[in-house]
Amino acid sequence: MGQSNTIRILDGNTFVVCEDTGDIEATPSEPTGLFSIDTRFLSTWVLTVNGERLNSLSFDDLQYFESRFFLVPGMATHYVDAKLSIIRERTVGGSFREQVTILNHDEKPIDLEVRMDAASDFADLFQVKDEILNKKGEIYTEVEPDRLRLGYRRGSFRRETVISSTMSARYDSKGFAYTVHLEPNEQWEAAIHVETHAVGPGGRDLRLGLRMHGTERVELQHDLERWIAEAPKVNSEHGRVSSTYRRSLIDLAALRFSPLSLGGATLPAAGLPWFMTMFGRDSILTCLQTLPFTPQLSKTTLRILGALQGSRFDDFRDEDPGRILHEMRYGETAAFEEQPHSPYYGSVDATPLFVVLLDEYERWTGDVALVKELEQESRAALRWIDNYADLVGNGYIWYERRNTDTGLENQCWKDSWDSISYSDGTLPPFPRATCEVQGYAYDAKVRAARMAREFWGDPEFADQLEREAAELKERFNRDWWVADGEFYALALDPDGRQCDILSSNIGHLLWSGIVDPERAEKLAAHLVGQRLFSGWGVRTLAEGETRYNPIGYHNGTIWPFDNSFIAWGLRRYGFAEEAATIANGILDAATYFDGRLPEAFGGYPRELTKFPVEYPTACSPQAWSTGTPLLLLRTMLGLEPHEGHLAVEPRLPVGMGRIEVLDIPGRWGRVDAFARGRLALDNLAD
């Protein structure tokens, strides 16, 4: 079953991916089924009536957590004569609930055998992703008078799927069935409950506070209504902005994930289907994107990442003292250390970005208490930058995995195997240092200096950090500048040789502030020039580079999140028109995806394809793509916290019309911002 005809509903890290009939027939390599905490709890879920499969008339993706399927028996040619219609209503809220309704449209009574085949392979999400289903434990089935129990055990690790129904059913080892008699124009319905149980080592219950059956839909609906009500309101003369904003808000609500230790507080999971868990980099960048709109996500993210900060040297997990985690998993392969994600620390950008987010959060909210609470974690992160990340000894952040079996080779955001290369296409040796991470380190030191001076009572440390940041900026601008191309190298190899290719990473350098002002204009020209800018957005790698491929994962595709930070960086250096150009392209692309920007899409020129071409295996929804429209709104309106109030300096793309953002929360209370685009960019004004 391909990605295009799948229906997806989710609530945090519990999600269902199925066919347009509601059926699930998973293979070991497809992310279809009912998943929770990185385990597939249903791999088969097939409804038949009198032994016949059902066909879809239509389906409704009602909310992110529920769907409805309208079905009839028989082939398409028989629909006009259908005497039965079947409705499947499904809700996921920690666990899974389905209501089946059957209506008899015939003039005479009818007897039906209604059956649901049910099974689970209890695949770990990593096993599905790697297309290797190698279960080392025991899968079992227990048939009870009033329920069916599917289970998997491996030592103290146990997962169970418990299926029951409000109507009397006959359970067997392969599912359950009902005998139904319907009079003319009569209907029958049954509610089916699927409970997921997860027991970790030592018998610890990992069910993450699941809602009680029958109430989850109402709870989720009320929660979504509160979430939307508390966020700022966006009105736009052209509906695409406000509709895309609303889609983003709803998807952010769907992706909220409550880690075990937080008692219901949430942070953004990275993306469906592969990354429905905590990611340091992804969660931090999503929080930076959404701060003006949903600041509560940042507080949770900072606290949990601080609590799980590295404290020792562990080669298997690529852990160092002070390092912020990359990824946390709860599945079988992590529990038995077949994967290092319990948690895994193999990223070099999450640690400086942690400090960046803490400062930006305080600038918006005035939450000094959290800055003081996380002082030691911030200092530990800064020590990691200086003491443990500089593998070569020249003052930069480098990476080289110590876990050579299952660790990540590339530990920057462009983490695919071939994302870092020289201009001739060859790959550099390790360790490697990518340019944007040096910018993050610079920004972290500048921001930490402010926190040290204003909140930690340590002006000497503040002075030291500012000296170190200035030295890093000077050194970086000397070592990374590609003189004949007039841009910054993507990376350095351990001998100092430049990976001299033109990439989107230069936009992150503008955002961090590490770029010498006299060089910023060249970068802006590159970012909206023909080699990097497709018309829809900035490509990850410039057209004409050896490894350029418009559908290469990090070598020519367009990543919406990447573009949002590039636009923010352009605004920082005063290139408002260029930022508006990028914002306009990405928001135009969003309309082709019904307002939901995917993880990535093709880097083909706009005039060639006329519409954005989706990357074939892109995650959707994905947190930092969902956050993109929110950061673009901030960028277009020029929203910046400034000495206790919100500064607004709008610059909209041509023809966008009026935009209102109402009730923007912050240390100033709640304020409104307005902007109007006019006929020419140089005449735009508030």
UniProtKB/TrEMBL annotation:
One Pfam family recorded for the sequence: GDE_N_bis
Coiled coil regions in record: none
Family annotation (InterPro entries): 6-hairpin_glycosidase_sf, 6hp_glycosidase-like_sf, GDE_N_bis, MGH1-like_GH
Ranges where the Mannosylglycerate hydrolase MGH1-like glycoside hydrolase domain occurs: 335-591
Residue ranges constituting the Putative glycogen debranching enzyme N-terminal domain according to the UniProt record: 10-192
Protein name in the entry: Amylo-alpha-1,6-glucosidase
